[in-house]
Amino acid sequence: MAESKxxxxxxxxASHYISEQxxxxxxxxxxxYSVTLRNVGxxxxxxxxxxxxxxxxxxxxxxxxxxxxxxxxxxxxxxQSFEYSSGCQLATAVGTMKxxxxxxxxxxxxxxxxxxxxxxxxxxxxx
Length: 127
Description:
Elements: E1 9-17, E2 29-39, E3 45-56, E4 61-67, E5 75-76, E6 81-90, E7 94-105, E8 110-121
Antiparallel strand pairs: 1-2, 2-6, 3-4, 3-5, 3-7, 7-8
């Protein structure tokens, strides 16, 4: 019996507050985040686009959609990873990000790779 096809991308994120680019006096809080995508399925898949939902502490929501990530649309073979860094700016010291990547497998199947919600926080704001 043939092995069934598995379409699965693992997404890991680490975020950091960038104090030297932030200015609390004018409510500018800058964050960087590093994302690692790893193909834990058994079918090669390419990242086509992204959809981010960014929410600040006052429940203001920004949605960001676009092709690729940092100018790339990586093709990940099973077991391969791709890492990139980006950033965002909030008007509050705390917020969250979540979303998904739209992927197309080598066999033409399209699927989403969810980005689990993660926290953006200025140091020593959350306990």
